[in-house]
Amino acid sequence: MDTGEISIDFRDIRKSFGELEVLKGVTASIPKGATVAVLGSSGSGKSTLVRCINHLEKISGGEIRVGDVALTPDGLHHNGRRLSERRIAQYRTDIGMVFQSFNLFQHLTVIKNLVEAPIGVLGLSRAQATEEAMELLRKVGLPEKAQAYPRNLSGGQQQRIAIARALMMKPSVMLFDEPTSALDPELTGEVLKVVRDLAIGGRTSLIVTHELTFARDVASHVMVLDHGVLTEFGPAAEIFSNPKSERTQRFFQSAGL
Amino acid sequence: MQRTLNILLEYRDALLYGLGITFTLSVLAMALALVVGLVAALGTISRHKLIRYPAVFYVEFCRNTPILVQLVWVHYAWPELFGLKFTSFYSSLIALMLQTSGYLAEEYRGGIEGVDKGQVEAGTSLGMTPSRLMAKIVLPQAIMRSVPGMLNQFVTCFKSTSIVSVIAVPDLMYQAGLIVSATFLTMPIYTLVAVIYFVVVFAISSLVRWLTRHLPTAGYYGAAR
Q: For domain B2-221, is the CATH number 1.10.3720.10?
């Protein structure tokens, strides 16, 4: 697998949960290094679309190309060869993910949350992993919480730790699934700042969010989904100033943009 | 009355010895069951049918046969069935282990299923394989969640030991029977045995309740260390 910036191609992506079709043929090409805001109302399929990229959800139809890996309904392929479970796990190390509910490992301290996968999966030495973890903790402004347990942290602190944990793997792609939706409004700022200043970097990033002001601030591209259909996709400036559909116009207006 | 007390004092050592056997049996059975129950629990959630079906059968068999039947079955049927012949003590140990491991397997399984799926997804997205996730993320939390259930299971196991006297293991109950046949003091002896069981089991239960609240695993995976 390539390291560094990689592009993501969605080709007619379909996804059903039983009878319910949540993605109805999404096609879009995300260039290397783009920061994509994925917008849409609840139930529009935006979280599902992002979760398909690291194969947390298996697509039902179409193909996603992430760098030189092809995700299809019957598995992941690289150079025409099907990836084993172990290789799929390896593929995921290059794709960081931040969840709405933080999902920190509750039985581990903050520092152990950060070093677990780098040591166990990437094979870093404990000393090196700890050093890198402390540096990231300083960058997210929480070095003094290294020995704390997640349950003793605020939601905003937990989410900053979760972002640091994802960055420990030095991923080429970052996925954010509503990173501030579970937070009190006064805590969203500290998390969005970390997302903007630290997490996006030169990486290809997809951010599912309801924070339109933030999206307009950081996004190079915008996707708008509506009931499993991609209604808008393109450079952010274009979409924010001149949305194609009336629905999107109303959506932006209601947010005061 | 004085005579009765004198007789009880006379048999004090036999009763204490019996109590020692009761403790030994329940602690050993529990220790074995903690390991066997965990293996069985992991078996019941395996993706491979060849592992899952036998594991589910084992757990259901252990939980759905009376302990007395298991005891007699192990002691009298295994020699013919499997060519395995044990002394009364080891037959008792196996029977108690079977019963307890069945229930513990369910405790573990409940603990495993109770671990937040979000953490599993987070681990997956960090590139952990299912076996690494189980070992590093799920099991440690599942075991901590199972602690109260395990402790309660120990109390049950301790009480169950009283039936091993039927195959002549010299536990507390068996000693009582011997003393009754030698002295004919049926009421005082069995009453004393009931009181001893009550005092010991009540003490263990109280300790269990206290531990459940005060162990590092109490509440939400325990107080910070």
A: yes
